[in-house]
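Hi everyone, sorry if this is the wrong subforum. Our group has a chain we'd like a structural model of before ordering constructs, and none of us has done structure prediction before. Sequence below.
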Amino acid sequence: MKTIFFFFTLIALVLGLVGCASAPYSPPPDDPRYLPPSPGEQVLGQVEVTVPLFTSQNGPPSALGHNAAIQNLIREANRQFESRALVLRDVNLTLITRRSSTVGDFLASATVVSLSGLPSTGSSTQSSSVATARGIEGSLERATENAMRNVPERSRIAIVNVAAPDRSLADFIAGDLEIHILGLGYRVIDRTELDRIRAEQQFQLAGEVDDATAVSIGRLAGAEYILTARIDGEGTLRRLRLRVLETQTAELIGVSAESY
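Answer:
Right subforum, don't worry. Here is the predicted structure as tokens:
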């Protein structure tokens, strides 16, 4: 009886995990990544990648699929335009072929916009995010070096959480952190793998996570250390804060804060 109970429990768990990974996802209507470029924005060009993504049973990509597609598009944009100061607009995902009921091959495309060319006019939220991204690059580099000071070289690092005013800025910060951490001689866990673990373990895919959850995600991903980032304050009183924790002990071994 115990064996039968365990068997059916295992089946239920697997079905639950697949359902979490393949639930349909609709981007918020005000997410700037899915909107066309605004008038005055400096368009660098277009990027396209073909990627296998988690889907719903009806075809649309899941939240996990959207996150993976955007990360692949950002990498391709950085490769093509050799610039970290960029954001995506008009993201579109088109199903090419279906591999299974929960995975399909998608053509992901986006318009690439330069942060240095973004106008200062427009909505207050967008203007604030643009100004933040423009001024944060130097602070990111200094904060990363200070936070990672006690981490042994070649350690595996997972950037588990970035809390920022909007998703475009969070993507920008996460991408820049990857570049700086790799430049310091560390290895970085792919963010697509982190999103897969979040979905399988039913952790939230967006928003802030507590230290215990962040450490659990990092440990499951095989990271030795995790890094979290957040933006505090508003207006001219913004501050970037980074924290580094060891995944086996959850010990806080590095912190840094930079105004910008």
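For your construct planning: The chain has two domains: 21-116, 123-259. Residues 124-147 form the longest helix (24 residues).
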